[in-house]
């Protein structure tokens, strides 16, 4: 039997993946450039074809149930791999370049501002930077290395250079209406705020809450974003309180665009440079040393 015949409609899977990731039919429709009704129809068709519900209602939004979460993980990984492969086929990297994958937020807010410094420190190193969506595959297809935020256990086929512990904390613009009050309050004051959050890092707020002695169940979530980059841009625009890894907001804090009244806490995660095991690429080792120094600074 054809492999495709054992799968649900790919259009329905695409609509489902977007809606499950964004927890919103409206946001999925906007991302896919179709109507709200078109996404709703595809979700209904998929649930009928699967013979089960994939979502549960949450206020005015939706959230994937246990079955939906499993399907979302598989669909997101598959679409991310397809996207990366198509991008690499359309824009093949130079043969002597080290292909480095990064989450889009890390690439935009941390790597790109430091490229000039990297070129000065390692003039012999040529990079081809690839923005990644979703999780990295166990084989790191198409990549020589990946800079990411993660934690053990790591895939067996990876060589992992641990660079620095992950530190996260709430950040907000001093122009936010509540800023003057919040900056002098204990962390518990955030339980009264609608917090900005991102689907790519759903564990961030609960992790911070537990570390500061708060009950994660009491957190109130406001506007959600697909990527951390958009979340931080919203915080800079004084839309609300976000949570972020310290290195990604360091320049905003230094310039006064953002403040971090409660500082940052270490998580069980870390910054890591990962590469396929067994290659012993000297370029990766040199890059890891430079990255470790930059993160320490």
Outline the structure in words.
The protein is α/β, with parallel strands linked by helices and 297 residues long. Helix content is 41%, strand content 23%. It is built from 11 helices and 10 strands. The protein has helices spanning 10-22, 25-32, 36-50, 66-90, 104-111, 115-121, 179-182, 204-211, 228-236, 246-255, 282-296, and strands spanning 55-58, 61-64, 98-103, 127-132, 145-150, 158-171, 194-198, 220-225, 242-245, 265-276. A 6-stranded mixed sheet has the order 4-3-5-10-6-9, sandwiched between helices. The chain has a two-stranded antiparallel sheet with strand order 1-2. Helix 2 (25-32) crosses helix 3 (36-50). It is globular.
H/I helix tally: 11
SSE topology string: HHHEEHEHHEEEHEHEHEHEH
Extract low-pLDDT stretches: none
Largest sheet descriptor: 6 strands, mixed
End-to-end separation: 57 Å
Strand order of the largest sheet: 4-3-5-10-6-9
How much strand?
A: 15-25%
Tell me the structural class: alpha/beta
The mean pLDDT is: 89
Summarize the structure.
The protein has 297 residues and is of the alpha/beta class. The chain is built from 11 helices and 10 strands.
Indicate the topology.
Elements: H1 10-22, H2 25-32, H3 36-50, E1 55-58, E2 61-64, H4 66-90, E3 98-103, H5 104-111, H6 115-121, E4 127-132, E5 145-150, E6 158-171, H7 179-182, E7 194-198, H8 204-211, E8 220-225, H9 228-236, E9 242-245, H10 246-255, E10 265-276, H11 282-296
Parallel strand pairs: 3-4, 3-5, 7-8
Antiparallel strand pairs: 1-2, 5-10, 6-9, 6-10
Helix pairs in contact: 1-2, 1-3, 1-4, 2-3
